[in-house]
């Protein structure tokens, strides 16, 4: 049953019905709409990354693989797998290892060192060239489009702060949910 007392009439905004199983109250509607926007943005961002990369190299790479390449290049310092996982907030190590093999096979990344703790990854000269050209295209298309929207720079700063805050909240509630899972019957 829907709690209309917390709805504050928002279901009538622009004639849209914002209620569904994840959005019964105003607070649930706001969170659901943020999550739905986040899902759409994630998919659009992944398509953008793939298309931007495709303009500089003939390589089919997913958004996370593209992000991994740029994270490895970040600050031009070698990264361990643990560093890459932490910087990308990922835990799917087997998928990450597959992506690293793909980037190494494409000649964009190289592995150095040995053993579990001594292995690091750096971009090759080809990887540097690809990420530099990617940055050029990103600046000429994406950054230029962002700059053409008035006051968007301030809104991006707020969005970043909000997403960082929500990341922390999601991490905390995920730990809580994992702690209190029901036992299988």
Automatic annotation (TrEMBL):
Pfam families: HTH_27
A GO term for molecular function: DNA binding
All copies of domain HTH marR-type, residue ranges: 64-127
Keywords from the UniProt entry: DNA-binding
InterPro entries: HTH_MarR-typ, Trans_reg_MarR_HTH, WH-like_DNA-bd_sf, WH_DNA-bd_sf
Protein name: Winged helix DNA-binding protein
């Amino acid at each position: 049953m829907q709690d209309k007392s917390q709805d504050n009439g928002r279901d009538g905004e622009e004639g849209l019905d914002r209620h569904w199983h994840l959005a019964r109250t105003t607070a649930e509607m706001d969170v659901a709409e943020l999550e739905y926007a986040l899902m759409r943005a994630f998919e659009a961002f992944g398509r953008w990354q793939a298309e931007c990369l495709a303009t500089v190299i003939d390589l089919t790479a997913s958004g996370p693989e593209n992000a991994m390449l740029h994270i490895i290049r970040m600050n031009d310092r070698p990264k361990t797998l643990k560093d890459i996982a932490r910087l990308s907030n990922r835990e799917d190590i087997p998928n990450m290892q597959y992506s690293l093999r793909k980037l190494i096979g494409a000649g964009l990344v190289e592995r150095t060192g040995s053993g579990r703790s001594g292995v690091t990854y750096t971009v090759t000269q080809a990887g540097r060239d690809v990420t530099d050209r990617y940055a050029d295209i990103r600046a000429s298309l994406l950054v230029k489009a962002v700059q053409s929207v008035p006051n968007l720079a301030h809104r991006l700063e707020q969005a970043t702060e909000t997403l960082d805050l929500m990341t922390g909240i999601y991490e905390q509630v995920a730990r809580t949910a994992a702690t209190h899972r029901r036992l299988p019957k």
